[in-house]
Amino acid sequence: MSGSERKHESETGRAPAAMPIPAIAALASTERLEQLKSICRNVVDLSPMDPAQIVETFGGALILLEHGVPGAEQIVLGLAVDKPDSAVLMVSDSLPVHIVRALMKIEASDILPSDAGAGDVLDSIDRIRAAAEAIETKPEEPASAVCWAFRGAVGGAGVSTLAIESAFAICEKVGPGKVCLVDLNVADGMVSSFLEAVPKLDLAALSAAPERLDARLLAAWCWQHEDGVSTISAPRNPDADALATEAAILRLLDVACAEFPFVLVDMPRHMMPWTKPILGAVDEAIIISELTVPSLHAAADMAREVDMLRSPDRKTKLVLNRMFPKKRFRAEFAVDKAEKAIERSIDATITSDWDAARTAVNLGKPIADVKPKSALVADISALVDRLMPDGVLAAHVPQMPARRKAS
Fold first, then answer.
1. How far is the C-alpha of 159 from the C-alpha of 187, rounded, in Å?
2. 3-137 has which CATH code?
3. Which of these, 121, 137, 41, 52, lies nearest to 87 by C-alpha position?
4. Superfamily name with CATH number, domain 146-396
5. pTM score, two decimals?
6. Of 48, 61, 66, 156, which residue is most buried, by most CB within 10 angstroms?
7. Residue span of the signal peptide, if any (predicted)?
């Protein structure tokens, strides 16, 4: 047995003689190509070919790309457009937002760190195979999750509350076990406190080896509310921001979207290494503000910044929270005047219900459980219906068995 074979066997616990990968095409360094030869019978070196030729010839197959090697980015972008049914392993410690978005459009993809070994490559391929088999056994399920990100234009805008209520509103429509709420305020998130949830996310372990996260480990880090919404949150830790690397957070959301049809993300207002990739890739980027002049200007600026990360047909949504009920007379200017002032349309308004919100967080329940007829609950339900793609909710509504007619 060669030295590379012994290293591979000790690293993966598998005998290399079986060569578990029959073929793989790779655009990578010489060292990476030699590594692949220890686990694959047929390694195709793509370096002599141009990106367009690679996309045409090897699109739909298993491809490993090392970020930084000339042509790797062009191949990913080409596959996302012309051959989205491919399986791509991207080796990188830091990816630009446009490449992350392209990878999310490819049917099967994974991101490995630069120091990934042969065993890590095999584990990644195993995960891709398992995901493909799951799709084949459940053809009625959608290929990808609906993912929304909520971010506040100013502090205290009620982002966590709206993210929580939106998650429970979707769960009310589609049934339990299909909605996951991810709290990315890793240093001082409030989701677990508001719902009396158990913060199970081991951020240190995730950051140390993002590629090890799979469905089984994700399930161990999830806590499910009695109403059926799963939450992922980390214990409060003032040093947690340093642990939340881009690779770790993107891997977390990638696996969550593979396991849940609906994933909602409570984002911090301050900029993190992964903020732009997430806001550029999610189905809906939702900015939360209040109807005050400083908040409106902050929201308009943030919305313009996020729009630069997204395509013209995927504009950022602007939501005003804590609006006074119309029957009350308060010193508050009209929404149409606010839109004129910031030169941007406001997509939704959420009525304030402070008493119901306070009672809900004290009981660890969503507001819909405490006061189901609240105007806030109705506004959230309308927002969910408006933002959800056509037919998605109906596809996930559980089918009730037909009742037998009385004889």
1. 16
2. 3.40.50.2300
3. 121
4. P-loop containing nucleotide triphosphate hydrolases (3.40.50.300)
5. 0.67
6. 66
7. none
